[in-house]
Amino acid sequence: MTTSISPARAPLAPPAPVGRPRRSLTEIVAPYAYIAPFFVIFAVFGLLPLLFTFYVALYDWNPIGDHLFIGLDNFARLLADARFWNAARNTLSIWLLSTVPQLLGALLLAHLLNHVRLRFALLFRMSMLVPYITSVAATAIVFSQMFDRDYGLLNWLLGLAGIGPIDFIQSVWGSHVLIAVMVTWRWFGYTTLLYLASLQAVPRGIYEAAAVDGAGNWRQFVHISLPSLRPVIVFTVVTSTIYGLQIFTEPLLISKGTQTCGPVRQCQTLTFFLYEQAFGQFRFGYGSAIGVALFVMVVVLAGINYFLSTRIRPERP
Questions:
Q1: What distance in Å separates the CA atoms of residue 309 and residue 217, rounded to the nearest whole number?
Q2: Nearest partner of 306 among 222, 223, 242, judged by Cα
Q3: Do 255 and 261 meet the contact criterion of CB atoms below 8 Å apart?
Q4: CA triplet 124, 130, 134: central angle to 5 degrees?
């Protein structure tokens, strides 16, 4: 009996390493070409004007005259100008009166809407965007009439309660409240819908499990809704800070075109003060210094708000 012995097989060679496929020049350049328009537009209409503002702030710049380099004199004059500090106080006051109630109210309303069932819910949500798309000029006209000292609806209601008429437009706090109400009315619905859309992405089972464990509406809001809204809260806080510190149209309209916003500059914001100096008195260098100061204020306060809003952490299981 014979046995055949098969020859031993040679061990298989390891597979040759597959190199990364070479990309064509078009594939390399295409992603950068897609995003290039944004950066080009931003550089032309955003970055270059910002850098030019810093440049002009170092000059005594007359738009139809000489441009005299004076270094930091505009900033030294700015720090000693009582009108600048008055405008800064007005800006911060209006920003706080409009931003804080708006964001807190939108948070609570979005949480409530997320837990109730409304008839015609879609129509209700669409109607909340009406103030956002309404002209600011039309808003100013309506609210100025409502807050008017002699014929305003609000003073008529205060008169029924035995309270004398309040001249909102000509008083410091009254004008701040009027502008804050206008800003809040315009952005409240938009902010609420942002929060509501984010809340509706949270699985309903989480709320049901929390209810089974005995968590009430407040604990659900604090431990589920609020942490889930963290990215949107950061976005709305930062954007509200930027917009709130640059308020210009509302005080301009209620002041009826005066560049000081009243006899004692009671509602003149920083952007309004910049407008007065640069385009009313043609002091472009001083106006640019105000713009630089406003830029620094916006960056600092937006950074602080971003830091505080990012402290909201989701609950760990």
A1: 22
A2: 242
A3: yes
A4: 175
Mean pLDDT by 10 residues, the chain (317 residues): 52 56 77 89 90 92 84 92 93 92 89 76 79 87 87 86 83 90 91 88 82 81 82 88 89 82 86 91 92 92 80 52
Angle between helices 284-309 and 48-56 (to 10 degrees): 130
d(CA 184, CA 102): 6
- What is the spatial distance between Cα 237 and Cα 308, in angstroms, rounded to a whole number? 10
Do 192 and 106 meet the contact criterion of CB atoms below 8 Å apart? yes
Token pair, residue 307, equals 């830091």
Helix (H), strand (E) at residue 177: helix 172-199
pTM of the model: 0.81
CB 244 within 8 A of CB 271: no
- How far apart CA 190 and CA 196 sit, in angstroms, is 10
- Rounded CA-CA distance 114/225 in Å is 10
Residue identified by tokens 């040759």 is 16
- Confidence (pLDDT) at 7: 54
User: What's the token pair of residue 127?
Assistant: 């109607």
Query: CA separation (Å) from 214 to 208, 227, 316?
Result: 10, 19, 18
- Give dist(CA 91, CA 148) in Å, integer: 22
C-beta separation of 168 from 174 below 8 A: yes
